[in-house]
Amino acid sequence: MSKLKLLIAIALLVQIAVFVTWLVSFKPEEEIALEKLGGNAFRFPPHLLYKDNLEFGYISSKNRSDYNIVIGVTTKWHRKGWPLMRLLHSLMENMNQQEREETLIVVFIGEVNMLIVQRIVDELELRHKQHLESGLIDIIAPDRHYFPDLEQLRLQPTDTYALVKQQSKQNLELAFLMSYARNKGLFYVQLEDHMLSLQPQFVSTMKRFAYIKSALGNPKLPSWFVLDFNAASIAGKLFKCAELPYFINYLQMFYNDMNSLQLLHFFIQTKVCYHQKMSELRCERNMQRYWLKYDTALFGQSMLTKVSSTTTAAEPQTRVLVSSSMSAYQHYILSSVYLGERYYIGRLPAFEELPQPGDVVQFIFQQPTLLRSYIIRSGSTAEPLKRLYNTNVEVRPALEISALQLANEYNVTEDEFLIVGAFDSRGVAAGMLDASIGALQELRLRIQDFRDHEVLLNEIKLELIE
């Protein structure tokens, strides 16, 4: 039995090796035609037919084309924070060094206003300079003539203009991004900036699934076209780079007619349900072989969730007043998180006024109170960029500091607060207070540097001494 298993494993490895060799060398007819036409995928839509020498509005690339996985990310300008940075952070956290070396992340900025494009580029260069220089991240933006007049789209009686405009623009964005990525690697994965990576080593998981399904496929039946790692939208879908031109053409022809996920469905239906006499059941089976689904979602939506209570009835919340120099987002108020109801998200109204040095979160005791310990958690797995860093935990004793003789043990601020702790790399501040500090008037969190995103607190627990 062990010899049989060994022979099966060897046969499987040989099939995978043959498939990879074919995938590297194979170029479908559409791709060869596109190369001969000088990349006319960018000029296929009717409004571009008479525009020559269409170029990128912006491009930053190391011009490599030997990657195993190419991840395409569509993004745009957001007034409220940077969902793109959250996504990139989750991708980096869930890739090991080997996966980073064989992966390219292409960020497509769906804007034609170069001032907006440059602002997003500046933020990427600030936060991911190392990854841009190493070739892990490319940045592209379309020429200002790429999109058609989105005010003149066709509408069906049941359509809303806003929806048709959004999905038409997204289809053309995907076509542009896929056209750029098709020569960069073996496999292409589509993502959007509001997504998050949910599992460690997701690159190896996707690659292994693709190799196994390719090697075990029946040569007499159509090979898979798409692998699905997130069922909710076009995001999370994996394609063979060599076969992308098929779907690119479909996106360009029907960009005004339906959303990208519907187009993918009808594209595959057209490929495998090829005559009218085919039964509905057989058509569905063929589509399932062409569109394979992984059993666990590797990507998910970035969203806010509620948290369970972090305090008990014995803890006297009513003795503490909570406030912040940062305004709260909608109904997620600071007192709510202290009572354990939901997140507190602090930010100032305009983008230029996100949290900055000197902003504070305050816990003011109505009467001098002894504090044994504190635990304050910021950010979350879904919102890692909203963790607090470079933020001190400071307390104001009820007695004058000079009377406590603590000058040599703690740093003291100009307004007579003792610095008793700080947030660590996980966005957590926790500590026990020295009994010699005595009763407190106030505990506060003081931000030390500029923030380019909101502050999120999901647990505040103060252990008081009665």
UniProtKB/TrEMBL annotation:
Keyword Glycosyltransferase appears in the UniProt entry: yes
Ranges where the MGAT4 conserved region domain occurs: 54-303
Transmembrane feature ranges: none
Any one annotated GO CC term: endoplasmic reticulum
Domain MGAT4 A/B/C C-terminal, first and last residues per copy: 322-459
InterPro entries: Glyco_transf_54, MGAT4, MGAT4_A/B/C_C
Superkingdom, natural source: Eukaryota
Keywords annotated in UniProt: Glycosyltransferase, Transferase
One Gene Ontology biological process: protein N-linked glycosylation
GO molecular function: acetylglucosaminyltransferase activity
Pathway(s) of this molecule: Protein modification; protein glycosylation
Cited PANTHER family: ALPHA-1,3-MANNOSYL-GLYCOPROTEIN 4-BETA-N-ACETYLGLUCOSAMINYLTRANSFERASE A, ISOFORM A, N-ACETYLGLUCOSAMINYLTRANSFERASE VI
Protein name: Maker745
